[in-house]
Design a protein that fits this description.
The structure is a single chain. The protein contains one helix and 41 strands. The protein is an all-beta fold. A hairpin with a 4-residue loop joins β28 and β29.
């Protein structure tokens, strides 16, 4: 649901329908959806906002936990919720939510059954400007062990906090469990318009809603002392990937354009787009120069002329590329014409989903509001600059500044099986210049970057995290970096799985392991930087 607003990105009709968005031409417009779901009507009760949960109350997140994206920038009224299950019986005493300073207006909390019956409501009062807000129901609401409920709040002015793909895996904080999002029971949930039962999902997003739970008192038991004999047996511990770390990744035949495509030969080898456009099921024999919101669905881009780009996005335009292939034709090591698969030149947002990109430069040179999901970046042809005799960077993804970037379930295979050797393989990669699967190099500040559930195989480093400008000037900053549940593959020489400088601020690093070239998470955990 993040970036669902028409002011941020034109969305595909398929994505729009599943998010409650109507498509007019090629511009997505939020549709206000109102009306309560069926179920018993429960009177609302105003309650004071407590500064902290009662000592006996349990919740899914601690008060020190903060969202990756504090403000979604979506200004539409919306109900936002979390699906959860208590593992023991008890009661829900209230609800918390994380508030951005721009998330204004009167907020209400609700508790629902999984089928949409309303169990309780309350109105937040005395809120702080931002951070965790809490409300207590007039009376605790009983809940049963191993039954599913939804806790929600209504944001009348939007601007909710969000972490996309958070519920790709379950989140457990006993005695509460927020299950992983599935096709039949999505988690986080939402509904646009007036307060109503939230039953839509988008990208398994966490909207930072938190139930407050108090367990029922356990039954009284009598314990009889007995004599026991304990036998200790030596065991061997085998390192296994953390729960949630994937073992398969996008590869040949699973992503990219498929089926019969219509050939398109742009005049001069470049298709220049100046009005909102949707292209589907075509093979473009040339480059794309994009100045207006554009969607590509099952499109093959084969740059074969003399233009220097493949897909270039300019002029505050947005790009949505789904099921696409970007692969220039007949590229040689000295061919500088076809570098950068997707290049952000002042784009408003870029979304790449289920794409296959193998080019002659960087797979994607990107900025703010970029999402790359379920895609495969691989087999880049190196470029040896004939004027200097030096090899250029060949990174899967590189950014030099921006915020709100997310890479999820991708295969970033920057390594080449036959690295450069002056004698035996002079046209191969120089691993010192083909630096990384992901290179974060801030000529301007970089913030809120998430790399999750992906395979990263570097040339010199798999992941380069650099907080200081390479120009040698003042530090520009690399903040809010989340790196979780990734597999780091082999690297050919020198560097390592990752590198960073002391000014890099890592918000979360967990579940990362070393694996083999096929992405099998079979080796040891990667240490915390």
């Amino acid at each position: 649901m993040q970036n669902a607003s028409a002011t941020r990105r034109a969305s595909s009709s398929r994505s729009a329908r599943r998010r409650g968005i109507a498509v007019v031409g090629t511009i997505a417009v939020i549709t206000a959806l109102a009306g309560l779901a069926g179920g018993a009507v429960v009177a609302s009760a105003k309650a004071s906002v407590a500064g902290a949960a009662a000592a006996s109350a349990s919740s899914l997140w601690s008060s020190g936990t903060t969202p990756l994206v504090l403000d979604s920038s979506d200004p539409n009224p919306v109900e936002l919720g979390v699906r959860f299950t208590p593992t023991v019986s008890g009661s829900i005493t209230g609800v918390r939510f994380y508030k951005a300073a721009t998330n204004t207006g009167t907020h209400t909390a609700s508790l629902w059954t999984a089928s949409g019956s309303l169990l309780g409501t309350a109105t937040f009062v005395g809120e702080t400007a931002s951070g965790w807000q809490q409300v207590t129901f007039a009376s605790p609401v009983p809940v049963s062990a191993n039954s599913t409920y939804i806790a929600s709040y209504h944001a009348p002015a939007g601007h909710y906090s969000v972490d996309e793909y958070y519920f790709d895996a379950a989140h457990s904080q006993p005695p509460l469990l927020a299950p992983a999002s599935t096709a039949s029971a999505g988690n986080g949930v939402y509904e646009y318009g007036a307060s109503a039962f939230p039953n839509l999902t988008y990208r398994a997003s966490n909207y930072w809603v938190d139930p407050l739970f108090v367990a029922s008192a356990p039954p009284t038991t009598t314990t009889t002392a007995t004599s026991t004999t304990t036998t200790t047996t030596a065991t061997t511990t085998t390192t296994t990937p953390p729960a949630g770390t994937p073992t398969t990744f996008p590869a040949a035949g699973t992503v990219g354009a498929k089926g019969t495509l219509t050939d398109v030969y742009p005049a001069g080898g470049v298709m220049s787009i100046h009005t909102p456009t949707v292209l589907s099921n075509v093979k473009i024999h040339g480059g794309l120069d994009i100045y207006a919101n554009t969607e590509l669905h099952n499109v093959y881009v084969e740059q074969s002329g003399t233009w220097w780009g493949n897909i270039v996005v300019r002029n505050n335009a947005s790009l949505l590329a789904e099921d696409c292939t970007v692969k220039p034709l007949n590229v040689t090591p000295n061919d500088a014409r076809k570098q950068d698969g997707v290049l952000d030149v002042a784009a408003s947002s870029i979304t790449i989903e289920r794409c296959d990109i193998s080019i002659a430069g960087k797979g994607a040179l990107i900025g703010s509001n970029t999402t790359i999901d379920d895609s495969w970046f691989h087999d880049f042809t190196p470029y040896l600059d004939p004027s200097t005799g030096a090899w250029t960077h060949k990174d899967c993804v590189m950014t030099m500044g921006g915020s709100n970037m997310k890479f999820v379930r991708d295969n970033f295979a920057a390594n080449n099986p036959t690295p450069y050797d002056a004698t035996t393989n002079p046209t191969g990669f120089d691993s010192h210049t083909q630096t990384a699967a992901i290179l974060l190099q801030p000529w301007s500040a970089i913030s809120n970057v998430a790399i999750q559930n992906s395979f990263l195989e570097g040339g010199y480093y798999a992941l380069r995290m650099q907080a200081v400008s390479p120009s040698g000037g003042a530090a520009t900053g690399l903040n809010g970096l989340v790196v979780t549940n990734n597999v780091f593959g082999p690297y050919p020489t020198g560097g390592g799985y990752y590198t960073y400088d002391p000014l890099t601020q890592i918000a979360s690093w967990s579940g990362n392991v070393a694996g083999d070239i096929n992405g099998n998470a079979t080796k040891t955990a990667i240490p915390q930087p």
